[in-house]
Design goal:
heterotrimer, A mainly alpha, B mainly alpha, C mainly alpha, A: mainly alpha, two-stranded antiparallel sheet, 25 helices, 2 strands, globular, C: mainly alpha, 4 helices
Chain lengths: 616, 500, 102
């Protein structure tokens, strides 16, 4: 059974190939069957593999297929490595992926690019599975770049609008910056250990590198560069909000549930390296904390339903990074999983809302939708509760674990915890601001007939609702993966701390209610001062990061490109040509065509030669 | 003997194609296609008939014995890979010219086949005089192809191409003569034989100068900054088939020359020179990627990206270790296919809408979806997507280069970012956005024909093969490269000692 | 016998040669150019004679004879060309006849 693991990415890959080769000539039901069915097959197989693996009691299982390339000591292969971590990832990817595929068969129903859409989706799932199952970093890199490509293709799916193309390119180029850093990290690791097999690397690093030295720090930093790019963390977070230009199932699958968490997976996978570099590890925590706070502020000021969710995603991944940084590896992976459930639910819910509202995304043009769109309302309600870590929803358990791990860290631990709690407060505010504005209050005049789509859209939502509610009780089998690295097995938190962590999000919800639900407090009053307006503008622009990067990188690059479009080097050769031309025009003048001129030059030449001969 | 047949067949086929034009203007292309196909088949018989690292086939005949010049051809794994690429892209080039070249078709295919013959000669010659002879043979027909069948500014471009390659070729000739002279002084007889010349010893200063003669000639062909500027003009003016041959094969002769001649003949000087060469490579990668982004002419853009990608080859060659060299060779092969395909797409677009100006294009995805997908595939290949050939080449080159020079590798790696910037820019400009036909004549804008899909499909399969199972290519060149590495190992050690 | 010093002869030859050269350079009429050319040839012939007389060798005279025949041939051909040119262009002005310009 376990040896069939290579079939996991193969099914969606075959789906991709068959859809691409037929290039839109297949009827829609068949496209849907291939698109969703291939991922479904993968999920079924993944579930069977998971049961076999858990039943076998092994810590890991390696399936080797063939050697990719063999150059000297560099011999990466298409080998799959299955352990608790990749097991969780593979189930999330195929499971949530399958649900989103099914949902998309309804969501994309009227789109002319139906087949193209599913071909990209299938390619994405294949690449993502490669990423999490590869046993060496080159194979991981293959998946890593592959998901980046699919993300690019799907963000720019509606290609006729230039701004979608811009968002797609931005996403690809910004993540490529991180990818390049990661590639350099790969070169460094190979130069030192002569292998890129992850497990071998980790063992070798543990033996050869001392904790706290420079080399593991540099290697960890370079990998971290890749992780922050993919996972939209500071300083490479700017692409994710723009990535919402893609169809909503894409936002759910790629930009919430799976791809953006690849960075978390990478760090968890190479956690040994990060433990050897404690400075970098704590940097991961700080990056996560700062990102989650910044994104929280920004999410409170956004008006586009998908952008709010996008910033919330950035913020939630910030929690995962925070967890990674304090050594709570399994808590982070746990949060990754629950986040996949409830964020997919929220995005798919927002997709239903957007479709029902005829592609209107501004929340202030919606209102009182709870009665018109009951299923969307239910999914949003459950998703929001899980997102704000309402007690006993899935998000509650995972976020709890991360924050408890943070506070147990000596030194900066308290501050990290405090920041995380403040972040949870913001989460409460922005999530329920969205809830109250969209689903309560009065109807703001936009016409809406009711739920769009059939069972293929509602069933995935219901399954995700259940998962978001009870996902917190799932036990993820990752102890063996992090066995030696896990700092905290059991958390013994005081009641006070538990109480604060439960109360703070609720206070946030309360504030959101006062402003947007009961209208007891007025936003207009709050926004009256110019300071508040400027702050609002600043947060709304994502802390001016786009503005800064435009001026730091984009504009100088464009300027350099523009002034040197003609290639200064070529101008030099042009100069050579000009000098030559000038020189031969001067000499050409001596060819007058007058006989006597030639005779004179002959005579003069003769005299000169004789004189020279006499003199010398 | 089989090697002579390979080359003679192309020469003869060229003459025959030229003469057949009088019979029927459609005959030359069929004859050309048949000739190259036959050539490819003969080459395929060489596959697997010998162990890698050995000479699979060789032929040595006296030519001008007085000066020790012989007609010495030989093929090993590396040469075989490259002549296979030559024949493959030769077929593709004939395919791309099939409908495009209608005027003086006979003479066109004559030039095309003679260029190919010259290239096959360059890849197989082991006598340096003969090598130089073929070096010139491939140059002159190429000049005619650009000058006669080129676009609006063809004379300028053809002349520039000719002068750049000719002047630097002369430098190489001087170096070859000096090399032969030194052999005469040391051994008492003249010889241009590669194996004899490998044993010539120099003082380090002389070696550096002689090596530079070779390096400049090969770096021009590659091309490398600062002698790259003939390429954008040549490419933008050449007919599609000319661009395919230029980008796909001719550039690779420069890289081949570096691997086969410049470094092994002068190992010590090359090792000493390596940091400079790698710096030039890094500059090529970044600088040309940036200039490429600024181009409006789609063919010029692709030409600059070629320079950028060939920078990885230079980087790999001068890092001079197994991964880096394999990376350089893989980049040569993969870039040969991807650049050729991109030029064919650009040529196809120009053929259809009579402009190469990207600001005028846009929204073609809806109009020509097959072409868009093909363009997307090759752009993505060019930006180094894992799973396709270019990634293997560039990754291996950088992986090897990192062991030789960390900083230059890090700087070069930024080329990966720039590559994504310009590649996606092309897709955005040409295929995405709103369709607007006011700026060009779209009456002939049709999607790729079945025949065109055949060529592109073949190249796609090639790139996927290289990306997913590169071993079949790596194995062929592995023996050659490790032989070269061990032959130069002593010199490398000596240089390292001097450096310390 | 009182002999003329060789210098006198050579100076005379030099003066004649210079006169001929000036004629070639300044005259526009091609007939005069041809005549000036003859003067130059004769000047060199004179130099040969003088030198031959000085050293008592016969080669100088032989050379002069050769020059004489050469000059005759040259005049014959040259005049023939001039007549042809005059027929064709109706002028003997060499400036007008100049066609080669760089």
């Amino acid at each position: 059974m376990l040896d069939l693991i290579w079939l996991l990415p193969t099914f969606p890959l075959l789906g991709f190939l068959s859809l691409v080769l037929t290039s839109g000539r297949l009827p829609k039901p068949i496209v849907a069957a291939i698109g969703a069915g291939s991922v479904g097959l993968s999920f079924a197989l993944a579930a069977m593999i998971a049961m076999t693996f858990l039943g076998s009691g092994e810590d890991y299982y390696i399936v080797e297929t063939f050697t990719w390339m063999s150059v000297g000591s560099f011999t990466p292969g298409f080998s799959f490595y299955l352990d608790g971590l990749s097991l969780v990832m593979m189930l999330v990817i195929t499971g949530v992926g399958f649900l989103i595929h099914v949902y998309a068969t309804g969501y994309m129903d009227e789109d002319p690019g139906y087949s193209r859409f599913f071909s990209y989706m299938n390619l994405f799932v294949a690449a993502m599975l490669m990423l999490v199952l590869g046993d060496n970093l080159v194979l991981l890199y293959l998946g890593w770049e592959g998901v980046g490509l699919c993300s690019y293709l799907l963000i720019g799916f509606w290609y006729t609008k230039p701004e979608n193309g811009y968002a797609a390119r931005k996403a690809f180029v910004v993540t490529r910056v991180g990818d390049t850093s990661m590639a350099i990290g790969l070169f460094l690791l190979f130069a030192h250990f002569g292998t890129l097999n992850i497990q071998d690397l980790m063992h070798a690093a543990e033996i050869e590198w001392a904790t706290g030295t420079n080399l593991p720090a540099i290697a960890a930093l370079l990998l971290l560069g890749g992780a922050v790019g993919k996972s939209a963390q500071l300083p490479l977070q700017t692409w994710l909000p723009d990535a919402m230009a893609g169809p909503t199932p894409i936002s759910a699958l790629i930009h919430a549930a799976t791809m953006v968490t690849a960075g978390v997976y990478l760090i968890a996978r190479t956690h040994v390296l990060f433990e050897l570099a404690p400075d970098v590890q704590i940097l991961v925590a700080w990056i996560g904390l700062i990102t989650l706070l910044m994104a929280g502020f920004t999410a409170m000021t956004q008006t586009d339903i998908k952008r709010i969710l996008a910033f919330s995603t950035v913020s939630q991944i910030g929690y995962m990074f925070l967890g990674l940084g304090v050594g709570a590896w399994s808590a982070s992976i746990f949060h990754l999983m629950t986040h996949a459930f409830f964020k997919a639910l929220l995005f798919l819910g927002s997709g239903s809302v957007i479709l029902a509202m005829h592609h209107e995304q501004d929340i202030f043009k919606m209102g009182a939708l709870r009665k018109v769109l009951p299923i969307s309302f239910a999914s949003f309600m459950i998703g929001s509760l899980a997102l704000t870590a309402f007690p006993f929803t899935s998000g509650f358990f995972s976020k709890d674990e991360i924050l408890l791990a943070a506070i147990e860290l000596e030194g900066v631990g308290f501050w990290l915890w405090l920041g995380g709690v403040v972040g949870a407060f913001f989460t409460g505010i922005y999530t329920f601001r969205l809830m109250f504005v969209v689903f309560f209050g009065e109807n703001r005049g936009h016409h809406c007939e009711g739920e769009y789509g059939g069972w293929n859209m509602s069933v995935p939502l219901m399954i995700l609702m259940v998962l978001s509610l009870v996902g917190g009780f799932i036990h993820i089998p990752v102890e063996a993966v992090f066995s030696h690295g896990e700092a905290h097995e059991e958390h013994h938190a005081s009641l006070l701390i538990e109480g604060i962590m439960i109360a703070v999000p609720l206070i946030g919800i309360g504030i959101a209610y006062l402003f947007y639900g009961s209208k007891t407090l007025s936003v207009e009053n709050l926004m009256a001062s110019s300071l508040a307006k400027n702050l609002h503008k600043f947060w709304n622009s994502g802390w001016g990061m786009d503005w800064l990067y435009d001026r730091l990188f984009v504009f100088p690059f464009m300027w350099l490109a523009r002034i040197n479009a003609k290639d200064i080097v070529d101008q030099f050769y042009g100069l050579v040509v000009e000098i030559n031309r000038a020189a031969h025009q001067m000499i050409v003048r001596s060819q007058t065509g007058y006989l006597r001129w030639y005779a004179l030059s002959v005579a003069t030449g003769l005299v000169l030669i004789i004189t020279l001969g006499v003199l010398l | 003997m089989i090697l002579v047949i390979l080359i003679a067949l192309l020469f003869a086929g060229g003459v025959l194609a030229w003469m057949s034009e009088r019979v029927n203007p459609n005959l030359p292309r069929s004859i050309a296609l048949a000739t190259v196909l036959l050539d490819l088949l003969i080459m395929l018989t060489l596959l697997g008939s010998g162990d890698s690292g050995q000479w699979i086939a060789s032929l040595e005949a006296s030519w001008i014995p007085r000066f020790g010049i012989s007609f010495y051809l030989a093929v090993d794994g590396l040469s075989l890979l490259l002549i296979l690429l030559t024949a493959f892209l030769g077929i593709i080039a004939i395919g791309s010219a099939w409908d495009e070249i209608t005027e003086r078709a006979g003479f066109f295919y004559f030039n095309l086949l003679w260029t190919l013959a010259g290239v096959v000669g360059v890849f197989t010659a082991l006598d340096l005089f003969l090598f130089f002879f073929f070096w010139e043979v491939m140059l002159i027909p190429m000049y005619f192809i650009i000058a006669i069948w080129g676009h609006e500014n063809k004379n300028y471009a053809a002349m520039k191409f000719f002068i750049f390659t000719q002047v630097t070729g002369m430098l190489m000739l001087v170096s070859i003569l000096v090399l032969a002279y030194f052999h005469y002084v040391q051994a008492g007889v003249f010889s241009f034989n590669y194996h004899d010349l490998l044993n010539v010893s120099f003082t380090s200063r002389v070696e550096m100068w002689v090596m530079l003669g070779f390096f400049i000639a090969f770096a021009t062909k590659l091309p490398s900054v600062p002698i790259h500027s003939w390429l954008p003009d040549a490419h933008s003016q050449a007919p599609t088939a000319g661009s395919v041959i230029l980008a796909g094969i001719l550039l690779k002769t420069g890289a081949y020359g570096l691997i086969r001649f410049a470094v092994p003949l002068f190992p010590a000087a090359s090792m000493e020179f390596a940091p400079i060469a790698m710096t030039l490579a890094a500059i090529s990668i970044l600088y040309c990627a940036k200039v490429a982004f600024a181009q409006h002419d789609i063919k010029r853009l692709i030409a600059y990206t070629s320079v950028s990608h060939m920078g990885f080859v230079t980087l790999g060659v001068y890092a001079w270790n197994e991964q880096a060299l394999q990376g350089a060779v893989m980049t040569m092969l993969a870039h040969g296919l991807s650049a050729a395909a991109l030029f064919m797409l650009a040529g196809g677009l120009q053929h259809r809408i009579h402009t190469r100006s990207m600001p005028d294009m846009g929204g073609f995805w809806a109009k020509v979806p097959r072409m868009a997908i093909v363009a997307l595939f090759f752009s993505v290949a060019a930006l180094g997507m894992p799973g396709l050939g270019n990634f293997i080449g560039e990754f291996l080159a950088l992986l090897g280069a990192f062991q030789a020079n960390i900083w230059l590798t890090v700087v070069s790696a930024f080329g990966l970012i720039f590559a994504s910037v310009y590649s996606l820019w092309v897709i955005q400009k040409v295929f995405q956005g709103e369709y607007n036909s006011s700026k060009f004549d779209d009456s002939h804008l049709s999607d790729l024909s079945r025949r065109e899909m055949l060529y592109f499909g073949a190249m796609m399969i090639g790139l996927v093969w290289m990306g997913m199972y590169p071993q079949s290519f790596l194995d062929l060149s592995a023996g050659t490269l490790s032989g070269l590495l061990s032959a130069t190992a002593d010199a490398a050690v000596a240089v390292a000692e001097v450096a310390q | 016998m009182e002999t003329i010093p060789i210098e006198h002869g050579l100076i005379l030859a030099g003066i004649l040669f210079a006169l001929g050269l000036i004629g070639v350079l300044t005259r526009r009429n091609i007939v005069f150019v041809l005549m000036s050319l003859e003067i130059m040839l004769n000047a060199s012939g004179l130099a040969f004679i003088v030198a031959a007389a000085r050293w008592g060798h016969a080669e100088g005279q032989v050379m002069f004879l050769i020059i004489l025949t050469l000059a005759a041939a040259e005049v014959a051909v040259g005049l023939g060309l001039i007549i042809q040119m005059f027929r064709k262009y109706q002028t003997v002005d060499i400036n007008v006849l100049s066609e080669m310009k760089g």
